[in-house]
Structures are given as C-alpha cells and as structure tokens.
Design brief:
The protein has seven helices and no strands. The protein has 168 residues and is mainly α.
C-alpha cells in the first residue's frame, strides 16, 4: 500500500521537476511546449475519489504555476482536467465499470484506448490553457493550431513514457 503511494509521490515530483526545469524552457518549432506533467493526473487509479482528484489537480497546477510565475493559469487548467477526467473515462469506456485493480495504462487497456484517453483530455487542457494565456478570441485559429500541435507532441511523449519508464 505504502509502496503504491510512494510510486505516485515519485511520479508527481519527477513530472513537476521535468516540466519546470526542462520542458518549460524548450519551445519546439518556436511555440510548441509539451505539457507532460498532466500525465500524473491521467495515470491515477480509477478509484481515486472526486475530491482527492481535485485536490491533487490543484496542487499539481500550483507546483507548476509558482516557478513559472503564472499563478492561477495552470491551477485552473489542471482543475479542469480533474473535473473532466471521470466524464472522459465514462465516455470512452466500452464497459460500465473499469476492472478493480486495473490502472489507466497501455498495459491494461491497449494503445488505442490510451491514446484516445490522453488525446481528449490533453487537447481540452491545452486549448483551455492557451485561451487563458491569450485572454482573447482574436487569434482563435492560431490557438487551436497551437493546441493541436502541442497535444500531438505531448501525447506522443506520454505514450513513449509508458513504454520506457512506467513499469508495474
């Protein structure tokens, strides 16, 4: 039990450090910045309660906002992820209830399911994040393009991480 909690603590710390010190300083193609840290929320067990999910979402966003000096933007976006995750899971589920003890991983549900799950949540997250950053609908199509490219890159990194780093 404690071993499982420690895995998530290490995942939280590792993804926050990766995002803050590496990925926030890298912009591919001039403006694409992968937001891999939300993988923490996506990999949480299905059984996590709604309040716990929202609290974890809040603290995850806060840990990104503080060093980035963008107080509120990432908190708001990660809270959105915490809020929509159960609905997205029920939307893409071919079953009524996920198997007890299974986790939202490629190993349990396959590559197509995992890509769909990550893509939907990551696109909603990035679109919301970039709309908040621009505070305008004047460049809406640029925001959508930016969100799509960022989502594809982020989901690609998330899928690769499943094969390279996430071991059960």
């Amino acid at each position: 039990m404690i071993k499982d909690y420690l895995k998530y603590v290490y995942l939280f710390i590792g993804l926050v450090l990766l995002q803050v010190f590496v990925l926030n300083n890298v912009y591919w193609l001039g403006y694409v910045n992968p937001q891999v840290y939300i993988l923490f929320l996506l990999l949480l067990p299905f059984e996590v309660s709604g309040i716990s999910l929202l609290l974890l979402s809040f603290f995850l966003g806060l840990m990104i906002d503080i060093p980035s000096n963008t107080l509120g933007i990432h908190v708001s976006a990660t809270l959105l992820v915490g809020f929509i995750r159960p609905q997205v899971l029920s939307l893409i589920s071919s079953r009524d209830i996920y198997e007890k003890g299974s986790l939202p991983r490629i190993r349990f549900y396959g590559l197509a399911w995992f890509v769909k799950y990550c893509f939907i949540i990551t696109f909603i997250y990035t679109l919301y994040l970039y709309i908040l950053e621009s505070l305008s609908f004047a460049h809406f199509f640029e925001v959508i393009l930016h969100s799509m490219v960022t989502t594809v890159l982020t989901v690609t990194i998330m899928v690769l991480s499943q094969f390279l780093f996430i071991k059960e």
